[in-house]
Design a protein that fits this description.
single chain; 95 residues; mainly alpha; 2 strands; 35% helix; flat; EC 6.3.5.-; transferase; ligase; glutaminyl-tRNA synthase (glutamine-hydrolyzing) activity; ATP binding
């Protein structure tokens, strides 16, 4: 697979980029070099390699939930910009 000048122009159009002819040629060359380098992976023998989604084995990385005391409402409301009836009052977002 290779990238053509037309492919670069299409992507530039989607990205709303105004590229010069020199830039289009440069990007075509660079993208083809990247693809050629990536094709080297096809030379590797992966027959006995198990597919993975991560490089390292990952088990549950979440900590256990632990119940603990909440802050008293009076202390929480000290940081609130405004308060009404023991609740944080915020500006209305609906008309």
């Amino acid at each position: 697979m290779s990238i053509t000048l037309k492919d670069v122009e299409h992507v530039a159009n989607l990205a709303r980029l105004d590229l010069t002819d020199a830039e289009k040629a440069q990007f075509t060359e660079q993208l083809n070099a990247i693809l050629k380098y990536a094709e080297k992976l096809n030379e590797l023998d992966t027959e006995n390699v198990e597919p993975t989604s991560h490089v390292l084995p990952i088990t549950n990385v979440m900590r256990d939930d632990v119940m603990k005391e909440s802050l008293p409402i009076e202390k929480v409301l000290l940081n609130a910009p405004d308060e009404e009836d023991g609740q944080i009052k915020v500006p209305a977002v609906l008309e």
